[in-house]
Amino acid sequence: MIKKIHVSFLIGMLTLLPLVGCGSASNQGTATGTGQVHEIMIPAAASLQAALTELAKDYQGKHPDVKLTFTYGASGVLQQQIEQGAPADLFISAGKAQMDALETKNLLDKTTRVNLLSNELVLITGKDNQAISNVADLKKPEVKKISLGIPDSVPAGKYTQESLKSLQLWDTLQAKFVYAKDVSQVLNYVETGNAEAGFVYRSDAMLSNKVKVAYPVPDGTHKPIVYPAAVLAHSQNKEIAADFLQYLRSSEGKQVFSRYGFKM
Q1: Which residue among 45, 134, 146, 235 sits deepest, i.e. has the most Cβ atoms within 10 Å of its Cβ?
Q2: Helices 49-62/238-248 angle, 10° precision
Q3: pLDDT(24) > 80
Q4: Helix H or strand E encompassing 12
Q5: Cα–Cα distance for residue pair 37/171, rounded to 1 Å
């Protein structure tokens, strides 16, 4: 009787072994084949959040063993965090100066650096505002507050400063300025009526049904708007980070960015 039980047990175990093997194989990741999840840390300009959220979802669907983790904010702040040792594999800035600073300190894999996108600076107001149709209208007494990003850390704020100086309005309007930590906050100030007007990228304005573009700022009044991207020199996942960057530059990536108001 005991021998029969032992034989039955062994037969059962042999039957289960192939099933266990199949289960392990089905759990393996498609990109590396190891089953290990690779987390890619991506500090990126705040203005990119909507577009990158959509693109990341699609990329991760095709690469289930890759987890993309984003930190959004002002490019200058993100640059400082990288310099201070914050974990990062791929940096996407809204300004050339921030990327240049990291390259000077040898914190980039220079071979991967590209100009990924461009954008347009616009003056926005509340949807029903009829008083502002150009930058000269900002001098009107009924315009009390104008929001812009902090020029030292927010590229859109720096472009705004350059434009208003070029148009000889910077000194005249300074008393009305409400500075914001990034373009998302500028947008919020105008949406909520905490500022009658603000300067953001066209891509930001397209995200809101509470504001309108009152005036496209002439390109010739500021430096070209460029979004550079590069893999970080200390990244432990350079190949995967570079692959995601390549995906952003693909025809599929271009279509999504274009839909959100960016230029490539």
Answers
A1: 45
A2: 120
A3: no
A4: helix 2-26
A5: 52
| 60 within 8 A of 66, measured Cβ to Cβ | yes
Distances (CA, A) of 62 to 31, 154, 244: 9, 33, 11
16 has pLDDT over 50: no
Instruction: Quickly count: other Cβ atoms within 10 Å of residue 64's Cβ.
Output: 13
> Taking Cα atoms as reference points, which of 144, 145, 149 lies closest to residue 180?
149
Question: Tokens 């720096």 — which residue?
Answer: 158
* List of domains in the chain: 38-118+225-259 (3.40.190.10), 121-221 (3.40.190.10)
Q: Of all residues in the chain, what percent carry a pLDDT higher than 70?
A: 87
Strands, E, within the chain: which ranges? 38-45, 66-73, 90-92, 114-118, 121-126, 146-149, 177-180, 197-201, 211-216, 226-231
Would you tell me how many other CB atoms lie within 10 Å of the CB of residue 176? 16
167-203 per-position pLDDT tens digit:
999 999 999 999 999 999 999 999 999 999 999 999 9
The two three-digit tokens of residue 162, written as one number: 């350059």
In this prediction the pTM is 0.82
